Amino acid sequence: MRPLGIPISAWIGLISTGLFVFAAVFAPLIAPYPMTEIVGAVWEPRSAEHWLGTDNLGRDLLSRMIYGARTTLGIAAAATILSFTLGSALGMTAAVVGGWIDQLLSRFVDLLMSIPTLIFALVVLSVMPVSIPVLILVMGILDSTRVYRLSRAVAVDVNVMDFVEAAKLRGEGRIWIVTREILPNALSTLVAELGLRFIFAVLFLSSLSFLGLGIQPPAADWGGMVKENKDGIVFGIGAALIPAGAIALLAISVNLVADWILNRTTDLKGGRGGQ
Predict the structure, then answer these.
(1) What are 231-238's contacts with CB under 8 Å, separation 24+?
(2) What percent of the chain has pLDDT over 70?
(3) What domain count does the chain have?
(4) What mean pLDDT do residues 6-16 have?
(5) Are the beta carbons of 50 and 36 closer than 8 angstroms?
(6) Residue 266 above 80 pLDDT?
(7) 77 exposed, middle or buried (CB, 10 Å; 0-12, 13-18, 19+)?
(8) What are phi and psi of 214, to 5 degrees?
(9) Average pLDDT, the chain
(10) How far apart are CA 142 and CA 201, in angstroms?
């Protein structure tokens, strides 16, 4: 059965993603302990008091996971929104305007993309104060280069189509053409990329935190929790594997939802085209 016409895979993704979002939004209400409170011994096993055990300092791991979801998802979502807003706007504008503006923007993006993203972020964050706004800004700007290339490539193809030429002949402005003609026809591609970029943002933040330049202790995020508890793996303690598993599950869930949205959008466009 497919309730409401939604495939089972999409339901799995929607439910899993919804649980993550619910935990992030209501973290202070559902977490059994405060984020930084030491409630037991180091790396205690699972028990009725601590469903996931404790971490390397004796803090409740479940509570840290819940608060970590708020930090990880919040920063990744903000960075993804920034990257898509900036990258899509500049990419489609460059495709429509063309000329020296297109060349200037494209060469600047090529310059940024020629530098490994993680190295670039490490250099920037090593000389700037590590805070949530700075992390969002750095992640969003660096990731917007990928969105720029994609949106520009799609916009270049759409910009030469007959309905766009007709809009130009009617005297429509460039903003109208970008928002009313190009963006709707590029939406399915951007939606598919949105899920990937969000997951890359989660992984990027986790990598920065693992290297010590992301979220700073005692605040919790999943990448930092892997770093904090990695030494326990040697002793057969899986505290570091729980946040790593959460990252993997989130990646799968978001991509299941993104694939469903992409397929649904494509089907709707195909249905309109056949009318």
Answers:
(1) 231/56, 232/43, 232/56, 235/43, 237/43
(2) 95
(3) 1
(4) 90
(5) no
(6) no
(7) middle
(8) -105, -130
(9) 87
(10) 10
Helix-then-strand count for the chain, H and E: 11, 0
> What CATH number does the domain containing 153 carry?
1.10.3720.10
State which amino acid sits at residue 115.
I
Does the residue 63 lie in any domain?
A: no
89 within 8 A of 144, measured Cβ to Cβ: no
pLDDT exceeds 50 at position 64: yes
The label of the residue with tokens 């508890």 reads 229
Please write the tens of the pLDDT for every residue from 94-107.
Answer: 988 888 888 999 99
User: Which amino acid appears at position 89 of this protein?
Assistant: A
Which residue type, as a one-letter code, is found at position 194?
L
Q: Is the confidence at residue 270, as pLDDT, over 80?
A: no
Q: Which domain does 199 fall in, by range?
A: 74-273
Nearest to 20 by CA among 216, 275, 252, 261: 252
